Amino acid sequence: MPWKILAGSWLLAFAMFCPMFCIPPMEHILREELLLTHAQTSLLFTAPILMIVALAIPAGLIADRIGVRKAAGIGAIIIAVGAILRGTATDASSLLAFTFIYGVGLGWLFPNLPKLISTWVPREKVGVATGIYSTGIQAGAGLPLAITMSLVFPITNTFQGVFFIWSIPPIAAAILWWVLVREPTRNSIPSEPTSKSNVLLRRVLQNKDLWLVSILLLLQNFFFYTWSGWVPLLMRLKGATASLAGLITSVTLWVGIPAVLLLPRLSHKLGLRKPFLWVPAIILALSAWGVMHIPLSLSLLIMTLAGIGTTTLFTMILILPVDMRPKEEVGTASGLVISVGYIGGILGPLIGGHILDRTGSLDLSLLILIWIAVAAVIIAFRLPETGPKARFKK
Description:
18 helices
């Protein structure tokens, strides 16, 4: 296993989501200070996801041509610049503009993480490697949820100060990536002429199974970003303080760390992928139903179930393009899956915000999440089995 690459990928994964997930714990502060509605505040959370949707396919094509190390490094620099600029925002318009800059870097870097792994890691170890760097995503989202209001905000007592502090991880990640990581000497992906890239894109777009994977990721992201964006508020409505609400919600991410380390290994040993898609989707449906009815004292149980469901489903989806396509197409295939899949990350929180503005309740949003999870179960059953056992039979 190329541990230097895995360490660099983990740090990038951690750093790129820290500036994003400090928003939900501060939702009430941003809404009051910037005079925003719930739906408008959710846009500050989902704007980077819009950039993922817009840039995922171009980013994959560019990485296939210039090399994934350079592509990832450029994305890391843009993330750091956007994160720093957010700390200078004085109103909602400037904050949104700087958030879009940060989102450009996120949209550039994130789709290329699967390609990073496929370039340096043997195919039989892709599942394990994906689980390792995915823990960085979990930690990068979970830590801001857990400590933004209890530890970070009190340092400056301003939302600008919070953004400055959470720009430190992207700055460090960008510097370390460019200093320590070199292009692979073996199994590197050669630059492709534009005509060849167009052929690869058409071939990827014509693959029906990749479209099913894309829809599955859309459903997963609809669930996850709605949950992460509005469950802190739900916990406050149940009686938690702002600090406790963020900490409780972060359990969803922390539980995911052992899940993404252990379950891809189990998937590889069993030689199967599909059970690790439809079982987590069922768990998500149960979680959305449970969080509507349980008291605050039992919330950790529901957060644990939701964490296992969302992180397992997400990690296994990231593995599927690597399973399905040859190395030279992984960047483009991952770009398609992520571009379509992250539409769900935009729609979910925005719909939840509009429902909250109109009804003052999150119950309807949670009912929608139940049906989203049921739809994910159906899509998971329609996918072909791509695990090692299926490849061995071929």
